[in-house]
Amino acid sequence: MVRSAKQAARTSVWLEGKARRGGRGGGQPSGLDRERITAATVRLLDADGLAKFSMRRLAAELNVTAMSVYWYVDTKDDLLELALDAAFGEITLPDVEADEDADWRDQLGTLARGYRALLVRHPWLSPLIGTYVNIGPNSLAFSRCVQHIIRRTGLPAHGLVAAISAVFQFVYGFGTIEGHFIARSTAFGMTPDDYFQHAMSTVTQSAEAAEIVQESSELMEARGGDTVEEMWERDFEFALDLLVAGIEAMVEKSG
């Protein structure tokens, strides 16, 4: 049966006062609160991943019943939204309003590196970012900081959103792939370097892929780096420099 649009839509935990609720009233379990539940959710997501997460597993982690958790959240989606915003709170934001003389390039680089590290540290984060509206306090603080920095670049107003997208969608994609690669290698009991070598040796067994792999190997050799981590670091910093140079070129072009 097809659900109506009203039935299909869900209300964000950050709307209709849901985020301000500390519990549903009398009789809520002692020793629990939103902060403790959210911290446990982040720990479980880090340990087991998004696919294995459940309210039952969370309750076991907290040593309570599943119904106890529902005193503080209505749904699993509410809990994942809380975890998403808690993770964004880990990013150190520059004080852009107090330090107006700081170079926007340095501040943009700080935010981009912090966002990348967050996505690598929490591989479960990237699918949630694409699922929820991201209007929690930490997410909004991050967005406000990004907008403030991009406005200081000198770009015309019509190009500000595109510049934000160019930088932070790049970081999102880069950090997502890096984080999932590390998680996959860990799942196989390998280091990223061992997993990379294993993957390359496996792919070269395909005659159709051999030529492309050879070309890729030449490119990787040219960029330098003795480890996968070093290669990622060089790629990220060079790409970030390209984006900054592009912003500078567009500012100059706009006069």
Could you outline the blueprint of secondary structure elements for this entry?
Layout: H1 5-8, H2 34-48, H3 55-62, H4 66-69, H5 76-88, H6 104-121, H7 125-129, H8 137-151, H9 160-187, H10 192-203, H11 207-223, H12 228-254
Helix pairs in contact: 2-3, 2-5, 5-8, 6-9, 8-9, 9-10, 9-12
How is this structure best described in words?
- This protein has about 260 residues and is mainly α.
- The chain folds into two domains: about 10-90, Homeodomain-like (Arc Repressor Mutant, subunit A), CATH 1.10.10; about 105-185 and about 220-255, Tetracycline Repressor, domain 2 (Orthogonal Bundle), CATH 1.10.357.
- It is built from twelve helices and no strands.
- The chain has helices at about 5-10, 35-50, 55-60, 65-70, 75-90, 105-120, 125-130, 135-150, 160-185, 190-205, 205-225, 230-255.
- The longest helix has 28 residues, at about 160-185.
- It starts with a helix and ends with a helix.
Helix proportion: 55-70%
The shape, in one word, is flat
Structural class of the secondary structure composition? Answer: mainly alpha
Into which percentage range does the β-strand content fall? Answer: under 5%
Distance between the termini: 57 Å
Count structural domains: 2
Give, in order, the helices and strands: HHHHHHHHHHHH
Report the mean per-residue pLDDT as an integer.
87
Computed CA radius of gyration, to the nearest angstrom:
22 Å
CATH superfamily (homologous) name of the largest domain = Tetracycline Repressor, domain 2
| Tally of DSSP β-strands | 0
Low-confidence stretches: 1-8
CATH class of the largest domain: Mainly Alpha
Helices, by number, come to 12
- CATH level-two architecture of the largest domain: Orthogonal Bundle
